[in-house]
């Protein structure tokens, strides 16, 4: 499918609400809130630009029920169509919670670029 995306370093303060931006609009099946999705994704920290995770880096997509993912994905992926690429900017309360929450990404705003490969 598509090559691993490049994420431009954001300017200004991190948003306090979920930001959804379609980079490529797909023309396949649409993801619904209860769907299982097959995605390729890249995640970087908003503040530093450091990559913290990438399915491209592992060489394989991931397949997950949306209801098992962070709130930003549960809200940000539905409506996306297979073949699409979407950028999500996810504030801490829709990612891994406030700083000190026990996850190494707690308290951080995260940027994801997600390619939707399939829906079931």
Automatic annotation (TrEMBL):
It catalyses: [protein]-peptidylproline (omega=180) = [protein]-peptidylproline (omega=0). This is Peptidyl-prolyl cis-trans isomerase. Keywords: Isomerase, Rotamase. One of its GO terms (molecular function) is peptidyl-prolyl cis-trans isomerase activity. It is an enzyme of class 5 (isomerase). Belongs to the FKBP-type PPIase family. The keyword Metal-binding does not apply. The lineage of its organism: Bacteria, Bacillati, Actinomycetota, Actinomycetes, Micrococcales. Its EC number is 5.2.1.8. It comes from the Bacteria. Residues 34-120 form the PPIase FKBP-type domain. The keyword Isomerase applies.
């Amino acid at each position: 499918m598509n090559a691993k995306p490049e994420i431009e370093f954001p300017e200004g303060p991190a948003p306090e609400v979920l930001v959804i931006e379609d980079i490529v609009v797909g023309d396949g099946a649409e993801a619904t809130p209860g769907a299982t999705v097959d995605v390729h994704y890249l995640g970087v920290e908003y503040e530093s630009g450091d990559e913290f995770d990438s399915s491209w880096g592992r060489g394989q997509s991931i397949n997950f029920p949306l209801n098992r993912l962070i709130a930003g994905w549960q809200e940000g992926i539905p409506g996306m169509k297979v073949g699409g690429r979407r950028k999500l900017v996810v504030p801490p309360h829709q990612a891994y919670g406030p700083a000190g929450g026990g996850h190494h990404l707690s308290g951080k705003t995260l940027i994801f670029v997600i390619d939707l490969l399939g829906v079931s």
